[in-house]
């Protein structure tokens, strides 16, 4: 590969499977079943890669154009964590190429019709905490393989239609089934239809109103707000306490916390646990 025929090509794959390819060459390149367009949808700065397991340091930037990466999708979080691969390629012979980066998109900032995204290398997951946490509250997520609770039927999950929305994060419902007040607090909301389909959020407050109405407040508004008539799925909330696991979910056999651990106050108290002579 000579300098005069060298180009860069990068592929971005979202979690939903959508794939986009870009190149800084002036013509389309095709390899690995991907068309890399000479488009300004995305470009990347020079990579700074260290040996060993340190995190690669780079940025991707580009325009929020309708035919590539749209501001609507960025705001909705659809590009968060997208897979990124970058090659140096000989545009006269695309089989002569070298993979120079593999990782994912990190934090995305937007300004004046453009975006800038952090590129995270393959070693980024090593920064996450590993191992089991010994804590009085449960470490499992409601319904996962360790919790084992089946979120089927309408006891712990429900599908319903939005009647109204306020400030992008307060959703109101009519003819809502009878649930205890606060049943969905700390739970999750998933949009099933409409322009916000696939987006999810965590429930902050769940208020039962008269005449079968319900108000659900989210901790943070969705990037694309649902509208009246959109269908959503609500899952009951879990505060990770042993009493909740037993009384609300009847699932204490799968509780993954340690409710009998002594508190920090007990551990730090003078002569805690000592025998008296």
TrEMBL record:
Pfam families with a match to the protein in the record: Phage_BR0599, Phage_phiJL001_Gp84_N
Superkingdom, natural source: Bacteria
Residues of the Bacteriophage phiJL001 Gp84 C-terminal domain: 182-265
InterPro entries referenced in this protein's UniProt entry, alphabetically: Phage_phiJL001_Gp84, Phage_phiJL001_Gp84_C
Protein name: Bacteriophage phiJL001 Gp84 C-terminal domain-containing protein
NCBIfam families the record matches: phg_TIGR02218
């Amino acid at each position: 590969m000579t300098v005069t025929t060298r180009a860069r090509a990068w592929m971005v794959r979202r979690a939903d499977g959508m794939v986009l390819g870009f190149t800084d060459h002036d013509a389309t390149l095709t390899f690995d079943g991907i068309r890399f367009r000479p488009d300004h949808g995305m470009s990347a700065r020079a990579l700074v890669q260290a040996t060993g397991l340190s995190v690669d340091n780079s940025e991707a930037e580009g325009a929020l154009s309708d035919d590539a990466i749209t501001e609507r999708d960025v705001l909705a979080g659809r590009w968060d964590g997208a897979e990124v691969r970058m090659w140096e390629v000989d545009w006269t012979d695309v089989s002569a190429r070298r993979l120079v980066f593999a990782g994912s998109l990190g934090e995305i900032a937007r300004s004046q019709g453009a975006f800038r995204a952090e590129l995270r290398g393959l070693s980024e997951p090593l920064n996450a905490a590993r191992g089991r946490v010994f804590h009085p509250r449960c470490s499992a997520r409601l319904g996962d393989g360790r919790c084992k609770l089946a979120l089927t039927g309408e006891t712990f999950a429900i599908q319903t239609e939005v009647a109204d929305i306020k400030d992008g994060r307060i959703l109101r419902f009519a003819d809502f089934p009878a649930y205890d007040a606060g049943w969905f607090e700390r739970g999750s909301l998933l949009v099933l239809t409409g322009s916000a389909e696939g987006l999810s959020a965590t429930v902050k407050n769940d208020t039962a109103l008269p005449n079968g109405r319900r108000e659900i407040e989210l901790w943070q508004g969705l990037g694309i707000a649902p509208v009246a008539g959109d269908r959503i799925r609500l899952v009951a909330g879990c505060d990770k306490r042993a009493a909740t696991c037993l009384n609300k979910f009847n699932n204490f056999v799968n509780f993954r916390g340690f409710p009998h651990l002594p508190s920090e106050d007990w551990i730090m108290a003078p002569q805690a646990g000592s025998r008296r002579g």
